[in-house]
Amino acid sequence: MLFVVSVLKGFAVAASDGKIGTVNDFLFDDQSWKIRWLVVDTGAWLPGRKVLVHASALGEPDPARRELPVKLTKAQVGGGPDLGEHEPLSRQLESHLYDYYGWDPTWGVSYFGVGAMAQPLSLPPLAGEPDAEEAAEAEALANQQDPHLRSVEEVTGYHIQASDGEIGHLESFVVDHANWDIRYLGVDTSNWWRGQHVLIAPFAVREIDWADRHILINITRDQVKTSPPCDSIEMVDEAYERMLHGHYGWPGYWYYPK
């Protein structure tokens, strides 16, 4: 099932034995274009705590009940690694989360290469005992955040730059719940092509300029204007995706194993 991830904001997050909070944000890998973490607002249940749930533990969103189920118990979440509400997510903490819950950091299919998948924290073997400088470097690496881990909420609104000019801004992320991969970027073109919304697959992304909040794509404005129209996410089925991918010359997701 494809859905716009921003509609999940505020959904109740339901463990197997009760609710643990609401959807606050999602963190994605900008190389594999996969959602890696759900950020849960636990409210008064775990005040001052940030709870992260790996994509492999997420169920199918239920729009009617405004719920996102997770394959966890409240006790598991309550006893998990402690991350402060405003504390950055370090590589070391990610490793603690994988170890505590038994999650596989390489879970899920990546359409952009195995090398793009998240890997558990590991350092190259050293001959003999590490010296003080090596130990300091190892500690610094462990305390850093993965530079490819990005917030959906923060990146929404970035300008989209075609090869011959700007076409609009990033309005939404269209995600497939089966693997929690980002299938398309929803672009609002109103400042250039009024009243239109288009879908751009990550295959087209050439570069992301984080400082200037721009996403550069390798297609032209004319290609965008002649692409199959998309009035709503409900019309995006395999037939539509085949037309869209054929128009741009992108590989088809339907060829990949699930």
Automatic annotation (TrEMBL):
Region described as Disordered: spans on this chain: 128-148
PRC-barrel domain: residues covered: 8-55, 161-223
Pfam families to which the protein is assigned, alphabetical: PRC (PF05239)
InterPro entries in the record: Bac_photo_RC_H_C, PRC-brl_dom, PRC_barrel-like_sf
GO biological process: photosynthesis, light reaction
GO cellular component, one term: plasma membrane light-harvesting complex
Domain of life per record: Bacteria
Name of the protein: PRC-barrel domain protein
Species this protein is from: Methylocella tundrae
